[in-house]
Amino acid sequence: MQGIYSDSIRRGYEVYKQACISCHSLRYVAYRHLVGVTHTEAEAKAEAQEQMIVDGPDEEGNMYERPGKLSDFFRPPYPNEEAARAANNGAFPADLTYVILGRKHAEDYMFSLLTGYYDPPAGVVLRDGQYYNPYFIGGATAMGPPLFDDSAEYSDGTPAYASQLAKDVTVFLKWAGEPEFDHRQRMMVKVLTAGSVLVLTVWFVFRFRFMTLRARKFQYRPKG
Question: In which residues is heme c bound (predicted)?
């Protein structure tokens, strides 16, 4: 998405890949969506091929694994909800595809949530495996602090402070919720431009071609 800083989206993808992908899925984002936004086609193909995708059945009726393709969606970290809960103390890590679109001021909320872990204040009791975060509903979450300074590495050398990591992954998740946003914007500009030209053309033809016919008068003058 050119309108939401392609460099930041790419860095956010790198943060997601290093810090989030082990728990949270992006079921509705395909590797082809990266092409022309954060990666070249060759880079996106290489990213896809790092994932082994379950496919099939083959001619013998068996499922098999193959390297990913551009048309494949991001592979979820767990095969089903039960496996996800078993690995996370009963909590089910949410799919992040539309997490930004589903809340008002969601970018600010997501940034605060990712950077808002503190020691619990007096009187707050947490169960085993819970962490205090005032931005989470109830103040307790099973997700530990996901981001620290240098907990991820940027390919462009940007300093990986926790606040920078949170900002970039939030921008990436904003893009992930509507990867066709820029395409729709460009189409809207084209439609508005074409519509304006059409309206002006119709006005010109009506004003200078047909108005003369409308204003024309005929007189009948009988002979004699």
Answer: 20, 23-24, 143
**pLDDT value of residue 182:** 67
What is the rounded CA–CA span in Å between residue 219 and residue 66?
Answer: 85
Q: What is the mean pLDDT of each run of 10 residues along the chain (224 residues)?
A: 73 96 94 93 96 90 93 94 91 92 89 94 89 92 93 94 96 88 72 85 77 70 72
| CA separation for the pair 221, 224 (Å, rounded) | 9
Q: Quick one: which of 101, 145, 107 has its CA closest to 8?
A: 107
Residues ≥6 apart with Cβ < 8 Å to 66: 52, 53, 55
20 marked ligand binding residue: yes
CA–CA separation, 72 and 81 (whole Å)? 21
Find out whether 24 is annotated in a ligand binding site. yes
Residue 187 annotated as part of some ligand binding site: no
